[in-house]
Write a structure and sequence with these properties.
The chain is α/β, with parallel strands linked by helices. The chain has 7 helices and 10 strands. The strands form 2 sheets. A 7-stranded parallel sheet has the order 1-10-9-6-2-3-5, with helices on one face. It has a 3-stranded antiparallel sheet with strand order 4-8-7, with helices on one face. Bound molecules: fructose -6-phosphate (F6R).
Length: 233
């Protein structure tokens, strides 16, 4: 593991942006695995302002809520458009997020998994760290979920995400997420985590027992993992 300790959120975002910019410079047609949430906002701002060439790049997002359409401000597709896609020269047709409105979420999950395969796999996958150690929407469980699948969200995740909604009742209760195997097949993974409230879970994930009770702990087994964080002294 390559652990990059930084002082604050801005430094974390800068270091992550450097990795993404180097990736598309080295391989313009890279498949970039992207995440939503608070952690990547600074990174996306930097990418948006970098004037870099994303014209050949493709993107696949980790997850999407079931029941939210692309024009719903709480959907992850909307988040990606607003925070990144509309600010860079990526071909919008090459940006992929699971379809939260799919009539059959299981079939959509299968399609998404096949799509990633067809694209040749993910070159660089970005991950945030959930408070319970989730990655994507892979919540603590008895076993590691393999492929992209529909998932029912943990109470803690619904609570954490309710800050973006008018009330916890409005948070969708299920989502489509890349599976652990999907994520682990990415050629490179970068985790970004900022803030003292992430310190304990990050320590557990990186140095604790590898267990599906802490989904992110599986990352210890990845061959090319970079962690950028201000959580450690
Ligand atoms: C987002 C995602 C989640 C978040 C995690 C951390 O697409 O898959 O796993 O990365 O919940 O969220 P923040 O960055 O808001 O703390």
């Amino acid at each position: 593991m390559n652990l990059i300790k930084v002082e604050n959120y801005e430094e974390m975002s800068r270091a992550a942006a450097d990795l993404f910019l180097a990736q598309v410079k080295e391989k313009p047609a890279s498949v970039l695995g992207l995440a939503t949430g608070s952690s990547p906002v600074g990174l996306y701002k930097l990418l948006a302002g970098a004037n870099a060439d994303f014209s050949q790049a493709k993107s696949v997002n980790l997850d999407e809520y079931c029941g939210l359409s692309a024009d719903n401000p709480q959907s992850y597709r909307y988040f990606m458009t607003e925070n990144l896609f509309k600010h860079i020269n990526i071909n919008q047709a090459n940006t992929h997020v699971p379809d939260g409105m799919a009539a059959n979420p299981d079939a959509e999950a299968e399609r998404y998994e096949e799509l990633i395969e067809k694209l040749g796999g993910i070159d660089l996958q970005l991950l945030g760290m959930g408070h319970n150690g989730h990655i994507g929407f892979n919540e603590p469980d008895e076993e590691f979920a393999a492929a992209t699948h529909r998932v029912y969200l943990a109470e803690q995740t619904i609570k954490a995400n309710s800050r973006f909604f008018a009330s916890p009742e409005e948070v969708p209760t299920s989502a489509i997420t890349m599976g652990i195997k999907t994520i682990m097949q990415a050629r490179k993974i970068v985790v970004i985590a900022s803030g003292s409230e992430k310190t304990n879970i990050l320590k557990k994930a990186l140095y604790g027992t590898i267990t599906p009770r802490v989904p992110a702990s599986v990352l210890q087994l990845h061959q090319n993992l970079t962690v950028i964080t201000d959580c450690f002294e």
